[in-house]
Amino acid sequence: MIPILLPLIIASLVPHTSLVYAVQVNANNTIYSYTYNFTIICTKNNIIEFNLTISGNDYFTVTTYNVSENRPYPLPIDCVAFNTTNLKFIRNVTLNGNLTEELSGVFNALGKYNVPVTAYFHDGILQQLNGTYNGVSVYVNREYPTPTTTTAPSSSSFTNYLVLIIFVIVLIAAIIVLIKIGKI
Predict the structure, then answer these.
(1) CA-CA 20 to 30 A from 130: which of 18, 81, 101, 138?
(2) Chain segment 121-174, per-residue pLDDT in tens
(3) How far apart, in whole angstroms, are the C-alpha atoms of residue 130 and residue 136?
(4) How far apart are alpha carbons 113 and 128 in whole angstroms?
(5) CB atoms near residue 151 (< 10 Å)
(6) Which residues, 6+ apart, have CB-to-CB distance to 21 below 8 Å?
(7) pTM of the model
């Protein structure tokens, strides 16, 4: 099913679309928190170009990738998850009201811990991933950035109607002038 949907998934990833994930690893009672931001730069000739920005715990890196639409690793689409290998389909489940695919695999945490995980994909895009093994826990959740909008506070004060009042006064004055000069 996913190979049929892959062109639609790729098409929905227009340039400058971002997939943002909060990643938390708890190892030896130390919590490591990172943000993974995948920003699509362009898709052309079956190649996806994107930047991966990883930040957190005094760490920051930006890497540019060019990957095939058929093998998009590490881009978390087409049921692929970053830092994760051996993903195998388990079943379809409902997660947050959406039909998702549940897969199992192994997450490489901090480059030294291999943690069995369960990953959940909606429309082929990673939504969350988690697992625990030998005291090491991994939690990955997709973040949905909230657009910021700036609106002036609404009130029914005189200043809100000032422009309308001035317009009505000018309109009445213009009508009076036209009547006096005989045009109306």
Answers:
(1) 18
(2) 998 889 999 999 999 999 999 998 666 555 555 555 666 677 778 878 888 888
(3) 11
(4) 19
(5) 5
(6) 35, 36, 37, 38, 76, 82, 126, 140, 141, 142, 143
(7) 0.69
